[in-house]
Amino acid sequence: MISTIYRLTAPGMLEPTCRELPVSGGEVLLRPRWLSICRADQRYYQGQRSPEALKAKLPMALIHECAAEVLRDPSGAFAPGALVIPVPNLPGETDPYIAENYRFTSRFRSSGFDGYLQEYLLEAPERLVAAPRGVPPEVCAFLELVSVAMHAITRFEGIAHGRRERLAVWGDGNLGYITALLLRALYPAAQLIVLGAVEEKLSLFSFADQRLLVDSLHLGARETLCDHAFECVGGGGCQPALNQMIDVIAPEGAMALLGVSENPVALGTRMVLEKGLRLFGSSRSGLADFQRTAALLEANPGLGQALERLVSEVVPVRSVADIHKAFRLDAQQSFGKTILEFLL
Questions:
Q1: Which of 47, 159, 166, 306 to pair with 323, CA 20 to 30 A apart?
Q2: In DSSP terms, which residues pair with 84 in a beta bridge?
Q3: Does 197 share its domain with 222?
Q4: What gap in Å lies between CA 10 and CA 263, rounded to an integer?
């Protein structure tokens, strides 16, 4: 069958092209229905990557956050009409020690490999997760981002020591909100502290025990704020956030780094050594993280409702012009997710 794919050929330029899909195999035929724009998509669309990166990766269909409708599944794992979440990370080999999202041989949609901005696609049934029941499709669209936070928490559980009475999240954006929300659900007895730079955004973290502006945090030399910490800031704010975390975390605490910074970051390694801290990076996610995320959302109906607060725009897409509109609207948002209801 013929499928139309909408590729970014240059910053701000989308070109529809047709390709043949070999539907006679054992893969699941999908129709992307709900798509969510990520900051990485915007960097490509706005041309905020280096000329070398743009030359190497374009033309490419954007978007790796998606909820899709099953049209046909030869394996019988999913019924026609079912809503599923495709895992955008596609591993090319197995490794007993390195997770699929860290292998150099894995491919990731909308990063050098076509994303979900296409009419139809084929996917292996084992790379699909059933959408959690009771969760709105607009939220299912960005389940990938939720799974990224879940992946960091799972890594934290294997790295951090067992004293988890005070957990802190730096960052008042989408990722900070999601990470804090999952920590609240997974560690209900812990004191949850969220630190941010914008008071209006912090007001949305009503489920946290403490909400603090980073500029208002003043502790003595021997005072500590938390046992473990999650950095969800990235960008230019990454360096001050990480160094503040180093200053106020308890000895032998674990620091999860989730925020992406394009530039090198200077850290106060003297205190890292003196406190015996454990710093670990976390990027993307894998099938197990999607499965754990879907199970948690099904078991906690309130989580889906809380995540629904992140839906800032829903744009019906019936033309290429509507895709451009969605990216323009998303660029104006400082908080929340722009969702495309894909009707092309």
A1: 306
A2: 68, 130
A3: yes
A4: 24
Residue 147 covered by a domain: no
Q: Which residues contact 113 (CB under 8 A, 6 or more apart)?
A: 60, 90, 107
Per-residue pLDDT tens digits for 107-165: 999 998 999 999 999 999 999 999 999 999 999 999 999 999 999 999 999 999 999 99
Q: Do residue 190 and residue 244 come from a single domain?
A: yes
Same domain assignment for residues 190 and 315: no
C-alpha distances out from residue 171 to 99, 166, 197, Å: 26, 16, 8
Q: Structure pTM?
A: 0.96
- Measured distance CA(157)–CA(23) in Å, rounded: 41
The label of the residue with tokens 């999952």 reads 182
Task: Return the DSSP state at 286.
Answer: -
For the stretch 3-44, pLDDT in tens is 999 999 999 999 999 999 988 889 999 999 999 999 999 999
Q: Which pair of structure tokens corresponds to residue 242? A: 């990480």
Domain count of the fold of the chain: 2
Structure tokens at 243: 């160094």
